[in-house]
């Protein structure tokens, strides 16, 4: 008995050593990319083997975007981070100096290899006739949205509604009144995006689910007949960002492969994989190829309509920010 | 001062382990929390723990937990009585079921309860025509907190009920007490300390509960938002200080509850000896 366990122990140690010799990098990402990177990572290993003759395996870690960023700040050895919003990578700089301030300029397209937007999922036949953002605040319409304070990805939903109302009403007060009316129609505020999806499709709550286009297309691919996707005429361009974690790659001497991994995300092969997983590719040819899947929308970005993530975080999602204000009891 | 000799050897060693074990696992993290809170300054600490949204969440967390613990006091007493006093087919299965809320991942419990009590689900669908909503309301929070607290009451009471001597009950009966009187005047007083301990433990567990509640609560600020969720919410906004301040309040409350529970246990032990 004792000997057998001893043997097992030696075996495990040897495995561990053997594994340690192959290059191993860790991609710390958010919830919605689980399936995407499960396909991209082996593709990158093949690409790297062909190009350099070396073996690399990419490990992935998923969770809420903010929680993942905090794990990296607290010492999780991420070689690269691929997070739902630039603010979470900014936090790596602000809280721990793990990446330099100008990290967004290091890769094409502001370090955003694929994009998404915010759209609506309604029940078959669209019984409430939902077409645009205004329809969500009508009486009797129940909207399922996750809480933008507990879910990083959900901040894009909030900003999409705010940004559209800002354009239509022409004032921050008008936008705030609209978003307040919208959240009065939200009966369940889930803590994460997948939780909201479950509430809508499994629990049968609500008439509209507001979420990322990639998430909605994913649901539609699984449960096509029961739901319809409604694309509002104008919405936000969701820009999940990627970055090499300088402090980690310098220590682990993995900068070259980590950098190559992120550059690989922009190559047609990875762009195709992203499109198949319902993210809008930034490569125009690949996007054109999948045009039937991604209808054109009038996009606005966080930078142009909100003045960047730092300002958004301060004005909307800090304690006492606009999101807290719309929930204050009316006096 | 002379060294006291212990009958069993190894006091120093085991004491050392106890301190290291408790120190590393319990005291250090808590000290870290207290230190983090200490860097805040009184003004911002007070602002963080007394904002209207936070106060509303205390009402949900502490208030509903209290109701759930009281319910468990009544139902748990009955369940413990049945399990300890009667032999019936399936008793062992029922006994094991009581422990499930201990062992089950709380998220699973939350999802299971939500899918039973949602407006379009089995039980929720039956209640909906009567205007009773469970999932995504305070009632849902109450159901989840009752679920996770039940074993605490049953497991504290069961051994005490099993230890009750039949002689005292027989004596009461011979002296002319009816069944009801025997229960209230003879049995219940000896169960009271254990009952209170169980209820306090269930209360403490419910106050800190997160996993099951967030699925069933609906999590609307000022309505069904629990304090632990607000801590998560502050962390997601990188408000470490605010999160630490709320954590400190929850810590103080838990400590108080555990202290009361231990006091009650001591009281019960003294009564049994007397």
Which SSEs are present, and which pair or pack?
The complex is a heterodimer of chains A (331) and B (274).
Chain A: H1 2-21, E1 23-29, H2 34-52, E2 56-61, H3 65-73, E3 80-83, H4 86-96, H5 108-111, E4 114-123, E5 143-146, H6 154-169, H7 172-184, E6 189-190, H8 193-201, E7 208-212, H9 213-223, E8 227-230, E9 234-238, E10 241-244, H10 246-252, H11 255-264, H12 268-276, E11 280-281, H13 284-289, E12 298-300, H14 302-306, H15 309-317, H16 322-327
Parallel strand pairs in A: 1-2, 1-3, 5-6, 5-7, 9-12
Antiparallel strand pairs in A: 3-10, 4-7, 4-8, 4-9, 4-11
Helix pairs in contact in A: 2-12, 3-4, 6-7
Chain B: H1 11-38, H2 42-50, H3 52-85, H4 91-98, H5 100-103, H6 106-117, H7 122-127, H8 138-163, H9 166-174, H10 179-208, H11 213-216, H12 227-236, H13 240-273
Rg from Cα of chain A: 21 Å
**Largest interface, counted by CB within 8 Å of the partner chain's CB:** A-B, 31 and 29 residues
So, CATH architecture of the largest domain in chain A?
Answer: 3-Layer(aba) Sandwich
pLDDT averaged over residues of chain A: 91
> What overall geometry of chain A do the principal axes of the alpha carbons give?
globular
CATH superfamily of the largest domain in chain A: Periplasmic binding protein-like II
Number of β-strand runs of chain A: 12
Helix content of chain A: 40-55%
* Oligomer state of the chains in this structure: heterodimer
What CATH calls the topology of the domain at 100-274 in chain B is MetI-like fold
Shape of chain B: globular
**SS-based class of chain B:** mainly alpha
Q: Give the C-level CATH assignment of the largest domain in chain A.
A: Alpha Beta
Describe this structure as you would to a colleague.
The complex is a heterodimer of chains A (about 325) and B (about 270). Chain A is of the alpha/beta class and about 325 residues long. Chain A is built from 16 helices and 12 strands. In chain A, strands 4, 5, 6, 7, 8, 9, 11 and 12 form an 8-stranded mixed β-sheet that branches. Chain A has a 4-stranded mixed β-sheet with strand order 2-1-3-10, with helices on both faces. In chain A, helix 6 crosses helix 7. The termini of chain A are far apart. Chain B is globular. The model of chain B has no long low-confidence stretch (mean pLDDT about 90). Chain B has a domain of about 180 residues: MetI-like (MetI-like fold). With about 270 residues, chain B is mostly helical. In chain B, helix 3 crosses helix 10, helix 8 crosses helix 10 and helix 9 packs antiparallel against helix 10. Chains A and B meet through helix 3 and strand 6 of A and helix 12 of B.
């Amino acid at each position: 008995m004792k000997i057998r366990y001893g043997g097992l122990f030696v075996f495990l140690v040897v495995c561990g050593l053997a594994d340690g010799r192959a290059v191993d990098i860790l991609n710390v990402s958010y919830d919605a990319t689980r399936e995407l990177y499960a396909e991209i990572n082996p593709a990158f290993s093949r690409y790297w083997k062909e190009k350099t003759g070396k073996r690399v395996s990419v490990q992935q870690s998923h969770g809420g975007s903010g929680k993942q960023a905090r794990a990296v700040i607290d010492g999780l050895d991420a070689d690269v981070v691929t997070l739902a919003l630039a603010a979470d990578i900014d936090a790596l700089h602000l809280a721990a100096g793990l990446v330099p301030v100008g990290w967004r300029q290091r890769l094409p397209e502001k370090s955003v290899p694929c994009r998404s937007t915010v759209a609506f999922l309604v029940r078959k036949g669209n019984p409430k006739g939902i077409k645009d953002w205004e329809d969500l605040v009508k009486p009797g319409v129940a909207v399922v949205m996750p809480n933008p304070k507990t879910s990083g990805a959900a901040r894009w939903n909030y900003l999409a509604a705010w940004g559209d109302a800002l354009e239509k009403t022409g004032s921050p007060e008008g936008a705030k009144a609209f978003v307040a009316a919208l959240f009065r129609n939200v009966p369940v505020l889930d803590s994460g995006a997948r939780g909201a999806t479950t509430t809508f499709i499994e629990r049968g709550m609500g008439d509209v689910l507001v979420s990322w286009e990639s998430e909605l297309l994913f649901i539609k691919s699984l449960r096509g007949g029961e739901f319809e996707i409604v694309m509002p005429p104008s919405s936000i361009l969701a820009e999940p960002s990627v970055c090499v974690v300088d402090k980690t790659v310098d220590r682990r001497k993995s900068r070259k492969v980590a950098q190559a991994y992120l550059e690989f995300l922009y190559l047609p092969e990875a762009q195709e994989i992203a499109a198949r997983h319902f993210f809008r590719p930034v490569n125009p040819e690949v996007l054109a190829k999948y045009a039937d899947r991604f209808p054109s929308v009038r996009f606005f970005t966080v930078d142009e309509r909100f003045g960047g993530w730092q300002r958004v975080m301060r004005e909307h999602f800090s304690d006492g920010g606009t999101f807290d204000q719309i929930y204050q009891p009316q006096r | 001062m002379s060294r006291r000799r212990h009958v069993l050897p190894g006091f120093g060693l085991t004491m050392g382990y106890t301190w290291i074990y408790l120190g590393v696992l319990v005291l250090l993290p808590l000290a870290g929390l207290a230190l983090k809170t200490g860097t805040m300054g009184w003004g911002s600490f007070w602002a963080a723990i007394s904002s209207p949204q936070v106060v509303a969440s205390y009402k949900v967390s502490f208030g509903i937990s209290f109701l759930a613990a009281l319910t468990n006091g009544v139902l748990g007493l009955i369940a413990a009585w049945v399990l300890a006093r009667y032999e019936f087919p399936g008793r062992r299965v029922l006994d094991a079921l009581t422990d499930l809320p201990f062992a089950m991942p709380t998220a699973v419990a939350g999802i299971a309860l939500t899918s039973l009590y949602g407006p379009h689900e089995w039980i929720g669908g039956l209640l909906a025509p009567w205007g009773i909503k469970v999932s995504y309301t305070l009632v849902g929070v109450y159901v989840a907190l009752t679920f996770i607290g039940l074993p605490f009451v049953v497991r504290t009471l069961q051994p005490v009920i099993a230890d009750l001597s039949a002689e005292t009950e027989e004596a009461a009966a011979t002296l002319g007490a009816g069944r009801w009187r025997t229960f209230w005047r003879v049995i219940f007083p000896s169960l009271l300390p254990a009952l209170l301990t169980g209820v306090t433990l269930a209360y403490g567990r419910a106050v800190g509960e997160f996993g099951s509640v967030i699925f069933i609560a609906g999590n609307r600020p000022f309505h069904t938002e629990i304090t632990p969720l607000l801590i998560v919410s502050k962390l997601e906004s990188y408000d470490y200080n605010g999160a630490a301040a709320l954590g400190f309040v929850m810590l103080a409350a838990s400590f108080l509850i555990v202290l009361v529970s231990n006091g009650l246990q001591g009281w019960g032990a003294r009564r049994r000896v007397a």
